[in-house]
Write a structure and sequence with these properties.
two-stranded antiparallel sheet; alpha+beta
């Protein structure tokens, strides 16, 4: 699994036109929410964060930065779960084990400046 881009939550309901078997257009959502979040998706997020040295806090993730995977699925994690994922990535980046979810739970509590994939 791989993160292919980041989107703003406003883009979730973006539609694409497809042609039906009867030649009439129909529309479906371009992105689907992940229903079976697992280690493959989490590992892809961690790899993306580490490779690009992104720092994204939990509330920023929910309101601004959603990862989209190669299967065109996206995920919105709780701020606590995102904090855990970000802590895992930051510990890999810095070669430490000092970060926990609370360090990346809210931007107002974060001791590091965010580095975002989208503006």
């Amino acid at each position: 699994m791989k993160v292919i881009k980041w989107i703003h939550p406003d883009k979730i309901n973006e539609e694409i036109e497809k042609e039906s078997i009867y030649g009439l257009p129909y529309y479906e959502n371009k992105y689907k929410e992940i229903e079976d979040y697992n280690d493959f998706y989490e590992d892809a997020i961690v790899k993306e964060l580490v490779d690009n040295k992104y720092i994204i806090c939990g509330d920023t993730h929910q309101y601004m930065c959603l990862p989209v995977f190669e299967d065109n699925k996206y995920i919105i994690l709780s701020m606590r779960k995102w904090g855990e994922v970000m802590a895992k990535a930051m510990n890999l980046i810095e070669g430490s084990d000092k970060y926990t979810y609370i360090d990346f739970y809210l931007v107002s509590l974060c001791k590091k400046e965010e580095k975002l994939p989208i503006k």
